Amino acid sequence: MTSRVKPKRTIANRIHSIAGRLLPDRYRFRVARAYHGFRGSPCVDRPAYDTHSFGNDAEMSSISQMFAKLKGVPGFFNIDDCAHFSLILRTQTALRITGDILEIGSYFGRSTALLAAGLADGEKLVICDAFEADTPDVYIERPSPEQLLSTIRRINPDIENERLEIHVCLSHQLRLDPAKRFRFVHIDGDHSEDGALKDIQMVHQHLLPGGVIAIDDYKHPRWPGVTQAANRFLHETPDVSILADLNRHGESGQKLYLCKKH
Ligand SMILES: C[S@@+](CC[C@H](N)C(=O)[O-])C[C@H]1O[C@@H](n2cnc3c(N)ncnc32)[C@H](O)[C@@H]1O
Description:
The protein is an alpha/beta fold.
């Protein structure tokens, strides 16, 4: 992966961001459309990543209410991801697939807070992020573990300390108990082919039957290594199949959802 830098604060960017905070949903779409035109490209800098507009008379579902809380957190998780993750996590719980949840690459906790909300009784959320340490990808801002924790707690005020396990390290340094079993893993850290492949292979060893691995930025033109890693893994791992490959509102890439067969 070459670099991952937040979009520059251009005038158009500021107008879009202020409008996003102040305007009612029905006007946001128009501002987003004008913004697309100004940028000259419909998919540069994820212009729609924090929109969640529906019909004027639509009542906010519980998932939309959750996204309304998440969208103020810096990050890349959008309304589609929020819906897809919630649906998978709730389906697993309904099917009594129980196990911990793991995220590699939490950043400020936009996706992490949603994963914490999806925990069922007795399950833990395990988090691995480089935090302030250098990674090949460049971020202008870096969260501390305390910032991440405070975001998770603000959005999930009832979560107990012992249900959150934070590993401040690069994913190749992560040492998990061999007996640890996950039902859902979000991989959104190293975007190089080797790094992403090692992450996927490592978490696969801890994945329960019926467990799901969500891989971010699959088929994203800026990070071809992720696609190569996921395709290589699929080719060499017969006990895993594609559950879904889903586009993401305002994004060029997809999230790829892999499921371990029973
Ligand atoms: C794209 S951001 C995660 C965004 C977040 N999941 C979201 O949806 O908002 C990637 C994060 O992974 C971390 N990271 C990058 N390479 C890593 C590695 N090899 N090991 C652990 N964390 C890494 C970065 O520091 C950053 O916080």
